[in-house]
Amino acid sequence: MNGTSTSTSTGNDIGTTTDDGQDIRGVLDRLYSAWADYDADAFAALYTEDATVVMPGVFNDGREEIRAYIAAAFEGPLKGSRPLDEPRRIRFPRPGTAVVVSEAGILLAGESEVPAGRQHRATWVLVRDPADGTWAITSYHNAAV
């Protein structure tokens, strides 16, 4: 996770504007701001009601499960932590759908580097609400590098 190179591909997505990539980054920035504040409600609010999160040993089905999981984690093993996430590619395969591939890891309290065993590649799927144009996370998955 060294560097900041990111590619954005819109393909044939005629419903995607040049601002969409920034909007997607904005959602992720708000997610990590919520993490920095250990605010599980603000964190979960960035997910759709029917969102899923899949990580090694974890499956959260729905926004409330995501909120409950992250709230417990903020009070337990993730207390004092901060995430690192570097989007490497953002693409828009269909109008109103974005896929982000990133390199990710979590710095636990007192750490300055993510240990090799906790480095991940993550895939985020975001959807745009046709009513108001806002983006939300509908699926997140990560796997060890």
Concise account of the structure shown:
26% of the residues lie in helices and 41% in strands. It is built from 3 helices and 7 strands; from the N terminus they run E-H-H-E-E-H-E-E-E-E.
Describe the structure.
This protein is α/β, with parallel strands linked by helices and 145 residues long. It is built from 3 helices and 7 strands; from the N terminus they run βααββαββββ. A 7-stranded mixed beta sheet has the order 1-4-5-6-7-2-3. The N and C termini lie close together (11 Å). 25% of the residues are buried.
What is the terminal-to-terminal distance? 11 Å
Order of helices and strands: EHHEEHEEEE
Approximate strand percentage: 35-45%
Structural class: alpha/beta
Overall strand count: 7
Radius of gyration: 15 Å
Give the number of helices: 3
Helix content: 25-40%
Q: Looking at the structure, what is the overall shape?
A: globular
Largest sheet: 7 strands, mixed
Low-confidence stretches: 1-16
Could you give the order of strands across the largest sheet? 1-4-5-6-7-2-3
